[in-house]
Design a protein that fits this description.
Elements: H1 11-15, H2 20-28, H3 32-69, H4 82-86, H5 88-105, H6 108-127, H7 132-176, E1 181-182, E2 188-189, H8 193-237
Antiparallel strand pairs: 1-2
C-alpha cells in the first residue's frame, strides 16, 4: 500500500488564494503618496508569504509522511503464503505484527490533527504580513485545501487499519487451527466448511483493501491535478 501524505506544496496554490487586486486596493486606501512604494513591494510580500507558507506546509507533509513509514515493516509481506503459514513461529510473528500495527495506526489521525493545528498557528502568523482584507481569503483557502487533504489521509489510515484488522483475524484463525496441513496443490486444509468460509471472506476483504488503496491514490492524484490548475488560473486572473 502507498503511504499517505498531504500534498499542498506548490507556490501557485498558495499564491492563488491571495487576492492581489484586493491587496493593492487595501494598500492604495492607505494614501496616494504611499501607493507607488507600497505597490512595488506588494508582490514581494505575496511571494514571501507564499514561500514561507509552503515551507511550513512542506514540514507538515514530511511529518505526516513519517507517520506512515512505520507501516513499511516487511513482517506482514506475503503473510498468507504457504511457507509462512506452515511455520508456526512465522505465523505467530505475523499475528503479533498485525496487532502492533493496529495500535500504531489508531494514533495516526490524532497526530495528524496535532500537526495541522500547529501548522495553522504558524500560518496565521505568516498571514499577518498581509493587509487585513487579504488575510481571510488566504487563510480560508488554505483551510479548505487542508480539510480536503486531511480526508484523503484519514481514508488511507482507515484502510491501513482495516488491513491490519484482517491480518490479525486471519493469522489468529490459522493459529487456532494448530498444525497447518497443506495439500499437494499448496492449499490449506481447513477442519470444516465454516473455517474455510471465514478464511475466504478474510482473503476477499484483503482484496477490497487493495482496491480501496488504489482508488484513494487515483482520486488524490486527480484532486491534486485539478487544484494545481485552479491555482495557476487564480494567479493569472489576478
Amino acid at each position: 500500500m502507498t503511504a499517505a501524505v498531504l500534498v499542498l506544496s506548490n507556490q501557485a496554490r498558495i499564491s492563488g488564494y491571495i487576492d492581489v487586486k484586493r491587496f493593492q486596493r487595501d494598500i492604495q486606501a492607505g494614501g496616494a503618496e504611499n501607493f507607488e512604494k507600497a505597490l512595488s513591494t506588494s508582490q514581494t510580500v505575496i511571494g514571501s508569504v507564499g514561500r514561507d507558507s509552503r515551507e511550513v506546509t512542506d514540514q507538515t507533509n514530511n511529518s505526516v509522511g513519517q507517520l506512515f513509514t512505520q507501516f513499511d515493516d516487511h513482517t506482514l509481506d506475503g503473510f498468507l503464503e504457504t511457507a509462512k503459514v506452515k511455520d508456526r513461529s512465522v505465523l505467530l510473528a505475523s499475528y503479533q505484527a498485525a496487532n502492533a500495527k493496529l495500535v500504531q495506526v489508531r494514533l495516526v489521525m490524532p497526530a495528524v490533527d496535532a500537526l495541522l493545528a500547529d501548522e495553522r498557528t504558524k500560518i496565521v502568523v505568516i498571514a499577518s504580513r498581509l493587509p487585513e482584507g487579504s488575510r481571510d481569503p488566504f487563510l480560508g483557502g488554505l483551510s479548505q485545501e487542508r480539510a480536503a487533504e486531511r480526508n484523503f489521509v484519514e481514508r488511507r489510515a482507515t484502510n491501513y487499519q482495516r488491513m491490519f484488522e484482517i491480518a490479525a483475524s486471519a493469522t489468529k484463525l490459522l493459529l487456532d487451527m494448530g498444525e497447518i496441513s497443506i495439500n499437494e496443490s499448496g492449499q490449506i486444509l481447513f477442519p470444516d466448511q465454516n473455517a474455510l468460509k471465514n478464511y475466504n471472506d478474510l482473503v476477499d476483504a484483503l482484496r477490497q483493501v487493495a482496491l480501496e488503496d488504489e482508488k484513494i491514490t487515483v482520486e488524490a492524484a486527480a484532486y491534486d491535478k485539478a487544484r494545481l490548475a485552479s491555482g495557476w488560473k487564480k494567479m493569472i486572473g489576478n
